[in-house]
Amino acid sequence: MYNKSMKKVLSFDIDQTLNIAKTPIPDEIAVLLRDLLDYYEICPISGQKFDQFLIQIVNRLKDVNVTEQQLEHLHLFVAQGTQYYRYSATKHDWDQVYSYPLTDEQVAEVSKAIQQAAEELGYWEQDKVAEGDEIIENRLSQVTFSALGQKAGTEAKYAWDPDCKKREAIVARTKELAPAYEYEIGGTTSINAFIPGMNKVFGMTHLLEELGVAKEEVLYFGDMTQPGGNDYPVVQMGVDTITVRSHEDTAYALRGILAVTKK
To answer: What's the whole-model pTM score?
Structure first.
């Protein structure tokens, strides 16, 4: 049974948890998050880069008339929480609180390994990538492989690797080529590579520290909670987690939480 007195923070993965992958959050999610900002600290944590957080979440909240005071309760944990941004109503802008970037040498090493693995397995599909887009992206504190690029259509993304078998094979081979890094599967076509320990455990640990809360006061929503998924580290931490398969599942849960909270 949900106990509203225990939770102070609602934390979320983004793709397939708050939205259809790589698209702005839908109207209902935007309205629910806006209303929940009056009662909770809202903390999306994802492998996405900062600009995508703005496009997919913040801009949509503005569309439903979120206030600056509400935005001060929205915390953006970018690149699995290895970068953290919070809003200042005084500055009318976002402040970067911290960032832990990879070195240029690390980015080059792991990018080369991922590309080699994908090419060897026949999963490097540059011909399917839109002009100006890229398969491997430097997100500062992690490197992300997106098989069809960031601009590919949703239907193509969902169809590319629905059972994660392609990405599991790429990860297995990349680990042989660059064993000094950790790899996680996320979204629909993505693999995140990072320094060991710089996954969502790192992000969630900093979330607890920055917000001054205990893990028992956090409720997390994610779609990749299985072993090897990028939400699994949160489960391993012992944070209460709700596994969802779509933003519709999340909306259903949030409607219930909001109704109980308002009582």
So the answer is: 0.83
